[in-house]
Amino acid sequence: MSSLPLLPMAIVMIAGPQILSAVFLATSRDWRRNSVAYILGAALSITAVVTIAYLLGSGATGQRGSNDALYVVVLVLLLAAMVHVYLKRGESEPPKWMGKLQTARPRFSFKLGFLLMGFFPTDILTSFAVGSFLAAHGDPWTDGLPFVALTVLLLALPSLTVFTFGARAEAALPKVRDWMNSNSWIVNEVVIAFFVALTVNNVVG
Fold it and tell me: At a CB cut-off of 8 Å and minimum separation 6, what does 86 contact?
């Protein structure tokens, strides 16, 4: 049950260049291999960052004061993520390098998934917040796996949709991509605000 509040944070992880890249790769020439490579890279980096944050947090916990300090760190990370999302809200056009994804190769797709999900500002802040929250709450590391799994599943949705619906999906995905590109920041802010409230409750509760 302790992993349930973390699951909405998966939306923050994928909203932006992450899901846009997944859409581009799902309609690329070698879309099956590219999509699998992208998802594997993403899964590896997300798990690594959450694990590092959890281990660092576990080493700092043990007393009430240290737990509260770790919750404060989580709050700082979340607020930084909110600021980053807000500042980037006006960027409605995808980066120019995304145009190259139509001819991407699996090795590039793997690197892209690893770097985007592991080092993109919003993602690294979110993953660190999740791992630190689990440590401060005294939850096992395995409680972070549903968060990782849901994030990976969301990234896989474009390729799964193409696999299931074929040409109809290829026609619909650009519309979904455009909507996400314009409105995802609002969803992100709502989700992060929910997690901020949850963290504050743990501090004052």
Answer: 185, 189
pLDDT of residue 2: 62
Query: In terms of Cα–Cα distance, which of 104, 106, 135 is closest to 38?
Result: 106
Q: Which H or E run contains 159?
A: helix 145-165
Degrees (nearest 5) of the Cα angle 59, 62, 65?
110
What pTM value is reported for the model?
0.81
In angstroms, the Cα distances linking 118 to 33, 49, 56, 144, 194 are 21, 7, 17, 15, 23
Residue range 158-171: mean pLDDT, rounded: 82
First-to-last alpha carbon distance for the chain, in angstroms, is 18
Q: Who contacts 141 (Cβ-Cβ below 8 Å, separation ≥6)? A: 51, 54, 134
185-205 burial, b if ≥16 CB within 10 A, otherwise e? beebbebbeebbebbeebeee
Query: What pLDDT, in 10s, does the model give residues 125-134?
Result: 999 999 999 9
Token duo for residue 154 = 């969301």
2: helix, strand or coil: coil
- The 3-state DSSP class for residue 16 equals coil
With tokens 């790769």, the residue in question is 25
One DSSP character per residue, 67-123 reads HHHHHHHHHHHHHHHHHHHHHTTT--SPPGGGGGGGG--HHHHHHHHHHHHHHSHHH
Q: How many CB atoms are closer than 10 A to CB 182? A: 11
